[in-house]
Write a structure and sequence with these properties.
CATH class of the largest domain in chain B: Alpha Beta
Number of strands of chain B: 27
Shape of chain B: globular
Largest sheet of chain A: 2 strands, antiparallel
Number of domains of chain B: 3
Strand content of chain B: 25-35%
CATH class of chain A: Mainly Alpha
Shape of chain A: globular
Helix content of chain A: over 70%
Number of helices of chain B: 18
Oligomer: heterodimer
Structural class of chain A: mainly alpha
Largest interface: A-B, 38 and 51 residues
Largest sheet of chain B: 7 strands, mixed
Radius of gyration of chain B: 25 Å
Order of helices and strands of chain A: HHHHHHEHEEHHHHEHHHH
Chain lengths: 344, 503
């Protein structure tokens, strides 16, 4: 085994080892509570929601952008679905249409983000941050700022509340969506183009890649999976609520960056994102089990995010050799930056 | 009259190599003194010694008759030596006055005296007769106006000597005229100007005297008018060494025309450019940086749209963007390979494949076997080292990185290859390999259009040569002899003996 392959396995095993370490620590300090079936179930339930969001949110991140509106989009889609089902009497067929309608709201939000980001010289975090508030507003209008309970039909409540062989149904949904996202990212030309555009938008454009189309699709997918998460969450909680998934964007971002994705774009993997989701889930759970007051919970996660982002920015800058550029600058500008050199 | 600046016997060694050897240079008050020489002749090193960036190893510097030691930029500024950098160092979101006074702020008890600073800048503007508002935001100014702000900055520090390094490189004709007027004003105020430029025409218009450096040695200092431009070029090249080896006989092509550029114009960049390229030839395009060469290539490749004119390929007019062009068999090796040609954190294989998914995928699904074969084929055929398709390209040397860019097009059904500065920053061995590949492609019927600032390269590789000057094809060599000297003269807009005027 040469040094290179040791290094390669080192990076591959990094995340599983960190996870194992966290599990060990929790198992040693809180064996009585941590190592119970019920606890693992609650960890998985939490992870399944933002894990779903990660499956799509990774695309804007890989492009060097970000979708901060995933939590809001989830709330809106959940509310739209529940309202549709409740208002149309709660038949099984209305569940199907309602879910479709919910997913459509998510895709629509994503398409709007993608259009704005790819058309104007504006940072994606600002666009999606502003749009987050708009979308929460829509969710509030939809729900009239009230809890909308939905206890039937079973075809809806089973989406997030059912289980098979003792495993929550939402975990199966996550597995299917994660597999699809993995295939899309690793076995399609679209996936290849995402890495190319994220890694160097100018070179990608000069290689004939439709960078606008890629950007549009990336944000649309992020909207779609956020909507899925919102619908599963509504079903799990048997209610829709305008602030249902508030703050989830932090967990999603934390999962992605701890999983090795670079905010500069071009670097990251779905496997990494999933490991990151598991890690965040365990940290959440561990803090609660150890009786750490909830206000510290957010602080700890924020520290994890800052550390991971600083680390990834450092390694990205070191490895790529590209000038540190602001990613949201329009492609036209950077491309025209012709290298100054002495003529003749 | 006592000279303003007197440098004597300046010597500088880098790692055992003498880059400046006993160089003398003097500048009189109110004089424009041009410094000329090829790349690596020692011009910038000399200027860096003068501005305190490098310490000198030997020699003396006198300013106004007083010997001085310049050990830092700050010291140089204090002594009244100002430099207008190629890369302008202004802050675009601040006003003219704020930029001029930056780091020279006037304060009263620690508080900025904004009014006093604005008044001072307005006064400077008035004194020198510049057309510029002190409160204008720098980002709203043209490049020439920004240069004026840089000049104001040096004037504010009471500079008596201003160094200008290629100040017109990114200026249009009209903007250059404005700059020249400003230079005349500065002269009239008794300020000495050291003017570094590759543009012979400019130098002959502006300079009172000029000094030619070659390989770190001063060849001569001459009064303007004492010598013809052609003689200056000979001094720069050291003709007895170079002219023999590089003169070349060109042969007109006999194959059919493939690419036809017809009266192509893009405002402010190039005008009325018309030429034809033939199947199986390498058409070289020379000229100075900023003469419109790269911009014409970009239009041919569909990155930019021309304002008027046509580009035809095999008789049909070309429309659409880059993607369409690639499908028609075009390829581009851009001038800035790291920022425009490659995705640094992806592997050799993925970089090569990125232009080839039309053949390496079906219905959007990547054909992994074909993709892998593309990677290994590129590595093998171009002898890329390390010979591992999974290698990330950011770690490759310049030559190997360029081979990867070439690999993106080589494995396609290529008909036209546009090449911009193919070997800048590449070692000699890799250079030869790239020339060989280009010739192979041409022999297989590919039309190659190559932009190059390296005259030796143009002569070595091209079948025909066009020389751009200020956005137009100034000179054309399609058969007969051509020498480096001739191409250099043509690039400066002068009239060489060989070749003929472009259309």
């Amino acid at each position: 085994m040469n040094l290179d392959s040791i290094k390669k396995w080192g990076t591959r095993l990094q995340m599983p080892l960190i996870l194992l370490l966290v599990i060990l620590i929790l198992a040693i300090f809180q064996p009585g509570i941590f190592l119970t079936f019920g606890n693992f179930r609650s960890i998985l339930l939490a992870i399944s929601i933002y894990g779903l969001m990660v499956c799509g949110a990774i695309y804007p991140i890989l492009l060097g952008g970000i979708d901060l509106a995933v939590g809001a989009t989830a709330a809106m889609a959940g509310a739209a679905t529940v309202l549709f089902i409740v208002n149309s009497g709660g038949s099984d067929s209305s569940v199907l249409v309602g879910v479709m309608a919910g997913l459509a709201t998510g895709v629509a939000a994503g398409v709007v983000h993608g259009l704005i980001v790819s058309s104007f010289n504006v940072p994606p975090f600002l666009i999606t941050l502003a749009s987050m508030n708009i979308i929460y507003g829509i969710a509030q209008l939809l729900t009239g700022n009230k809890l909308i309970p939905i206890l039937k039909p079973k075809s809806f409540t089973a989406i997030g509340g059912g289980s098979l062989f003792g495993v929550p149904s939402s975990i199966y949904i996550l597995l299917v969506v994660a597999t699809l996202s993995y295939l899309l990212l690793n076995h399609t030309t679209f996936g290849r183009y995402v890495y190319a555009v994220g890694g160097n938008p100018v070179a990608a454009k000069m290689s004939g890649i439709n960078t606008r189309g890629v950007t549009l699709l990336a944000y649309a997918i992020s909207g779609l999976t956020a909507a899925m998460a919102g619908i599963v969450l509504a079903s799990m909680n048997q209610q829709a609520f305008a602030r249902a998934a508030q703050g989830y964007e932090t967990n999603v971002l934390a999962a992605l960056v701890t999983g090795g994705a670079s905010l500069m774009g071009g670097v990251g993997s779905l496997q990494g994102g999933m490991f990151g989701a598991l890690l965040i889930g365990l940290i959440d759970n561990g803090l609660r089990l150890m009786g750490v007051p909830s206000q510290y919970n957010g602080m700890v996660k924020a520290i994890v995010v800052i550390a991971a982002v600083a680390f990834s920015a450092y390694t990205h800058h070191r490895d790529s050799g590209l000038a540190r550029t602001r990613r949201w600058q329009p492609i036209r500008q950077t491309e025209n930056r012709t290298a100054r050199k002495e003529p003749l | 009259m006592n000279p303003l600046l007197q440098m004597r016997g300046i010597t500088k060694t880098f790692g055992g190599i003498k880059v400046l050897d006993n160089v003398d240079l003097d500048v009189r008050a109110g004089e424009v003194h041009a410094v000329m020489g090829e790349n690596g002749a020692g011009k910038s090193t000399l200027m860096k010694i003068l501005t305190g960036v490098y310490p000198k190893d030997g020699g003396t510097i006198e300013l106004g008759g007083q010997p001085v030691e310049i050990d830092s930029r700050k010291q140089a500024a204090k002594l009244g030596i100002g430099m207008i950098y190629q890369e302008l160092s202004l802050i675009p979101t601040l006003t003219v006055a704020q930029n001029v006074m930056l780091s020279d702020e006037v304060t009263t008890a620690g508080v900025l005296s904004i009014g006093a600073m604005r008044k001072r800048v307005a006064e400077l503007v008035r004194t020198y007769g510049f057309r510029l508002g002190a409160d204008a935001l720098v980002e709203t100014l043209s490049i020439a106006q920004r240069q004026t702000v840089e000049i104001l900055k040096t004037l504010n520090r009471d500079c008596s000597l201003i160094i200008m390094d290629e100040p017109t490189a990114s200026l249009s004709n009209r903007e250059s005229k404005v700059l020249f007027e400003i230079i005349q004003t500065l002269k009239a105020q008794g300020i000495g100007i050291l003017y570094i430029s590759h543009r012979l025409d400019e130098v002959f218009e502006l300079a009172d005297r000029l000094t030619v450096l070659r390989d770190g040695v001063k060849v001569a200092t001459v009064e303007r008018g004492a010598m013809a431009p052609a003689d200056i070029v000979k001094m720069m090249l050291g003709k007895e060494l170079k002219a023999v080896g590089t003169a070349r006989h060109l042969h007109p092509p006999s194959s059919p025309v493939t690419v036809e550029v017809d009266h192509l114009s893009r405002k402010g960049l190039f005008e009325e450019v018309s030429f034809q390229a033939y199947r199986g030839e390498i058409l070289g395009i020379g000229g100075l940086v900023g003469s419109g060469r790269t911009e014409v290539l970009r239009c041919i490749f569909g990155i930019d749209t021309p304002d008027s004119g046509q580009i035809r390929f095999e008789g049909r007019q070309l429309t659409g963007g880059t993607r369409r062009r690639i499908m028609q068999g075009f390829g581009l090796i851009p001038e800035d390979r790291r920022n425009q040609g490659l995705v640094p954190l992806l592997s050799i294989e993925r970089n090569v494949a990125v232009t080839n998914y039309d053949s390496a995928s079906r219905a959007g699904i990547v054909d992994r076997r074909r993709e892998r074969r593309l990677g290994s084929e590129a590595v093998e055929r171009l002898d890329i080292r390390p010979a591992r398709p999974s290698q990330i390209v950011s770690n490759l040397s310049g030559g190997n990185a360029q081979k990867v860019v070439l690999g993106k097009w080589l494995l396609r059904d290529l008909k036209v290859l546009l090449v911009d500065e193919p070997t800048s920053g590449i070692d000699v061995g890799a250079k030869e390999e790239i020339y060989t590949r280009m010739r192979e492609l041409a022999d297989n019927g590919v039309t190659i259009i190559m932009v190059s600032s390296d005259v030796a390269e143009l002569l070595r590789v091209s079948d025909r040569i066009l020389v751009f000057h200020r956005g137009r094809i100034h000179w054309e060599y399609s058969d007969g002899a051509v020498s480096e000297e001739s191409v250099l003269l043509a690039a400066s807009g002068l009239t060489p003996e060989e070749g003929r005027p472009g259309r």
